[in-house]
Structures are given as structure tokens and as C-alpha cells.
Amino acid sequence: MPRPAPPRQKAVVLVSGGLDSAVVLARAAADGFSCYAISFDYGQRHRCELDAAARVVRHLGAADHKTIAVDLRSIGGSSLTSETEVPKDRTDEEIGGAMPSTYVPARNLVFLSLATGYAQTLGARDIYIGVNSVDYSGYPDCRWPFIEAFINAANYGTGVWDDRDRKTLTRDGFTVHAPLVTLTKAQIIKLGAKLKVDLSITHSCYDPDEQGTACGRCDSCSIRRKGFLEAGIPDPTRYQSVPS
Predict the structure, then answer these.
(1) pLDDT grade, residue 169 (50/70/90)?
(2) What is the dihedral of CA 119, 107, 135, 229, to 10 degrees?
(3) Please, what is the angle between helix 185-194 and helix 219-231, to 10°?
(4) Residue 147 and residue 131: Cα distance in Å, rounded?
(5) What distance in Å separates the CA atoms of residue 181 and residue 164, rounded to the nearest whole number?
(6) 184-196 pLDDT, tens per residue?
(7) Which domains does the chain have, with CATH numbers?
(8) 144 vs 228: CA distance, rounded Å
(9) By CB distance 3.0 to 4.6 Å, which of 24, 49, 100, 110 could disulfide with 130?
(10) Is residue 223 within 8 Å of 213, Cβ to Cβ?
């Protein structure tokens, strides 16, 4: 009789329900990992993204999917966790300029910390996140220097690395994979198509209506719509309106 296949290594994958995180989940699976998806209910105004996260996980498959409640609304500081108006109809120059009010203070720092804790309980050492620093709104926690610094903090903070003799423990350290960090949105969409991700089930909008229909005017909708256009792939997203 043939020997059973060895168990695949585990990876924790952050899945928001957005386009990028869906592609990252597919990429982690393609890399050969058994994926443990984790999503966050953090008081976001676009909470319908959690329904999209569940759809994405069902579509792509995962060994498990957890949704963790984290009350970032209690500290405020973002139009995504308050009643402050979400910026709309901004030009490409404005989107690439000063950091907008949609930045959620320390969001990815908190999310990656919880993902690391989950990974440690699973005996996993790999974490995937869909951050991108090319077509994005200028968030500081979507850049590689932050990810690199977090990897060091995670390994020291969990005791994987001993600051007295780090080199002997490096091979067992946590790794944060950010495979989309230097890709354009069009390249991410093309990668999603290659990995056979149904991007129509994802959600990107910061200010959807009660039915979850994308506004078509926030930064995230603008970046998403432009990405599909540049990729030469039809945009399956339903928008409330599309500026000329």
C-alpha cells in the first residue's frame, strides 16, 4: 500500500474579505500550507467584509476559520471606526499623498500580534498577510519595514528567539509572508485570476450601503476599479455609483 502523504505545514492567514487577502489565502494554499484563516471584527463600519471573508474561506478552503472580536472603535482615531465621514472622490494624487482618515491606528500591529499568538498555539511558524505598498492609501503598517520589524518583535516576544543567542534559534522563528507588498493592484488581480480566485465574492469598500453594495467613490473602491481596468479584466463589483 502507498504511504499516506505527510501532513502539510500549518500557516495562519489573515483574511479580511478583501481582494488582497483572498489572493493571499490562495497563494498560501498554492505554497503548500494547510491554512488557518483568521478574521477580525474590530468595530469597522464596513462590517459586511466579514461576510465576504466567510465566503472567501468557503470558496478557497481552509483547515479552520476564526473571527476574533477586537474593539478598536473604543479608541477611535479613524473614520472606519467612528461616524467621521469617509473621504470620497479623491484623485490619484490625493490618494498617494497624506495619510487619510481611514487609517486605523496600529490595526495591523494588533492583528499580526493576535495571528502570532494563534500560530504559536498551532505550532505554526508561517503567517500570511495581504499588505500592499504600491496601489494603497499610504498606511504605514502596509510597508515592508514594518513587517520586518514585526518579525523580530514576534520572535523575541514569544520566546522563540533568545536575545542572548539568537542565531541558534533562527531556523524555528516566525516568518511573516507579504507576497503582495510590492505588486500593483492590477498585478494582484492577475495573480488572483491565475490562482482561480473568484474576486466577485470579495469586498473592498469602506462605506457600503446596508445591502453591502460598494459606494464606488472611496479610496478603496477607486483603487480596486482602476486595478481591474489596468489588468484588462472585467470588474465584477456592484457599485452604487461610478464617477466619470
Answers:
(1) very low
(2) 80
(3) 60
(4) 9
(5) 32
(6) 999 999 999 999 9
(7) 10-231 (3.40.50.620)
(8) 24
(9) 24
(10) no
